[in-house]
Each structure stands twice: as structure tokens, then as C-alpha cells.
Amino acid sequence: MKIGVLTSSRADYGIYLPLIQKLKCDTFFELEIIAFGTHLSFFHGNTIKEIEKDGYDIIHKLSTILTNDDEQSISTSHGLTVLKFADFWTNNRYDLVFCLGDRFEMNAAVQAGIPFGIKFAHIHGGETTLGAIDNIYRHQISLASYLHFIAADCFKKRLIEILDKSDHIYSTGSLSLSNIKSFIPVDKQSFFEKFRLPDSEYILVTFHPETVSLKENITYVKEMKEALSDLVKHILLVITMPNADTQGSLYREAILKLNEDFPSRVILIENFGKENYFSAMYYSKIMLGNTSSGIIEAASFGKYVVNVGDRQKGRVQSENILNCHFSKKDIVLAVNKALSFKSFIKENIYYKDFAVESIIKIIKSLNEKA
């Protein structure tokens, strides 16, 4: 069975990894990686190198993204991705193609495949993020997909409403949490040395723009920087850099300036890679920002998360999330509250045993019936 995996960024590749590793080792499948988006951008860490290190037989590489991140550039990148994939789907056929999440690049690759009748398998459909235009892209990807692997039972009803049908929807749990119970972090000393971290407690920070609130992002960036400037006086900040979103450069520039102001207290990471990112989460005191990993993954590491603003609004949350507004005062108060807590010990609603095994079993079963 010939399988394609669409990956457009460090984020989705890290989530895919447990599944890709199983597919790669199973002789039933003929696996090909289709890399595009920020993977081929030096500005975003040239993460295609990480994929190449993992040793796949076939890696397709499509350069599809522009450096700028204003509205016109994002729209142009979307159009360019469609054009590149129009050629790609003409020359490459698969029995099934995995797509994940809600990025505009992923949406463009999938939309280009519709006239070709590509069978897409969408992971993480049915979710809601009201503070990002990704919400629209996610639902469009779901509409274009044949199979749906959702992260929690509660998303099934929403997906049925979107699709107007209930077949081929499977609740398998979050793919990124596969094997989480057996996860062993990178040795602490080795990890701290590799990323030049001082041996002290730190907050793991990730901020992205609110792409449905473009006029407010200038204010949000100001409030974020002021809050971080206050927090850094008391605790180390390890900050992962923003994705290629509209106005992401506003946040990137503010974070770079923060690093200039506090070079020994603010550590900037362009790309951890999954194992190191999970290790960074494991060793952190808490998490801060507006990234989906705080909502989906952090609870499995016993971490409290200060979730800022509306980017993740509407997404179902475990009890480790402290929500606050995009203001210096609210952020600092919420962080201090989170820092006062001990480890989070309740369940992660996104976790299910054997997520990868369930997906592979379903695919093989459907292939036998075809």
C-alpha cells in the first residue's frame, strides 16, 4: 500500500513521528515523505535536514513559502503551494495521503489534490481555534478528506456537523502522545549543554500571532514583551520562535529584542526537534504562550500552562490550563499563580492508548475491504 505523508513544518512532523516510524518498518506500506512549507526555509531553521537524518527512502521536496508574512505574502504562498502541488499530484499517485492539522500550507496542498481524487487521511480534525484563521483551514481540510483520525471523542459531533456524514471518523487520541508513557527525556546535563542553557528553572515560552485579530497584534506584542521583561528578572525564559503565520515577524522581532536586552536570561530556539522539545517541556517549570502543544501535550508531562489570548479559544482543555488576556498584568499574575502549583497529576483528555496501532489497524482493515 503506497502511503504519502504531507509535512509542512517542524510542528506537524514531530506529531507524525510515531506513526511514520511504524509505517516505515511495516513491509505492508510503501512510504514517501512529501516535505514543503517551512521545512525548506532557512529563515525557519531549514528543518528538512532533520527529516533527511531520519533516513527515508523517498523524500519529495517542494519549495512553497515566501519570506515575508504580511497578508498578501501568505495568500501568495498559498497560491504558490497550490500550483506546485498541481504538478506534484499530476505525477505522483498514492493509495492514501496523510495530512495533519490546520496550517494554510497544508490546506493548499490538500485543496490542489481535490480534482485528482486523492484519498486524504486527516489527523486532528473537528477541533476549534477561534483566534486563528487556521480554524477555517482545518475544516476545509476535513471536507476534502476521506478518513478522519480525531484526538478525542468530543470532536466527533463537530466533525459530523462539518461533513454532514458520520462514516470514516475514528477517535484514536492525539498522535503526538503515542508512547508518551515510555518517554525518557534526554539526559539533563547533555540537554542543557547542547542548547547552552544555564542550570536553573525556566519557563518554556511559545507565542504566535492571533491571525483573526491582525489589528490587535501590535498591542499584543507590546503586552507580551512587557510581561516577559518582568518575568525574566525572576526566572529564565526558553523561547521557541514563531511559525510562518501572518504577522509572525512582529512577535519574532520583539523576542529578538528581548534577547538583546537580557542575553543571559532569554534563550532562543528556532527548532528543538520532537525529542528535545519534549525534553524541554519535561524539564521546564511551566509553559507560557498560545501554542497548541500547551493544550494537547503539556498535561502528560505534569505541566501547568498559562494560555494567553484567543488563539486557542474553543479548543477543549484539560484542567492544567490557566487562561488569561493579552495584557502584562494578567500574564504576570497567571504565571505567578502557575509557578506556585506543584506538578499537574490529573488526566490528559487528548491521550488514548495505542493511537498509532489503532490508525494502522484501521487502514489495513479498510484496504482489505476495498
Task: Walk me through what this model shows.
There is one protein chain. With 370 residues, the chain is α/β, with parallel strands linked by helices. The chain has two domains: 2-178 and 354-369, Glycogen Phosphorylase B (Rossmann fold); 182-340, 3-Layer(aba) Sandwich (Rossmann fold), CATH 3.40.50. Helix content is 41%, strand content 15%. The chain has a seven-stranded parallel sheet with strand order 3-2-1-4-5-6-7, with helices on both faces. A six-stranded parallel sheet has the order 10-9-8-11-12-13, sandwiched between helices. Helix 4 (104-113) packs parallel to helix 5 and helix 8 packs across helix 12. The longest helix is centred in the N-terminal third of the chain and has 21 residues, at 71-91.
In short:
This protein has 370 residues and is of the alpha/beta class. Helices cover 41% and strands 15% of the residues.
Describe the structure using short key phrases.
single chain, 370 residues, alpha/beta, Rossmann fold, 2 domains, 7-stranded parallel beta sheet, 6-stranded parallel beta sheet, 13 helices, 13 strands, 15% strand, globular
Strand and helix map with partners:
Elements: E1 2-7, H1 10-25, E2 30-35, H2 48-53, E3 59-61, H3 71-91, E4 96-100, H4 104-113, E5 120-123, H5 134-143, E6 147-150, H6 155-163, E7 169-171, H7 188-194, E8 202-206, H8 217-231, E9 236-240, H9 248-261, E10 266-269, H10 274-283, E11 286-289, H11 292-296, E12 305-308, E13 321-324, H12 328-340, H13 355-369
Parallel strand pairs: 1-2, 1-4, 2-3, 4-5, 5-6, 6-7, 8-9, 8-11, 9-10, 11-12, 12-13
Helix pairs in contact: 1-13, 3-4, 4-5, 8-9, 8-12
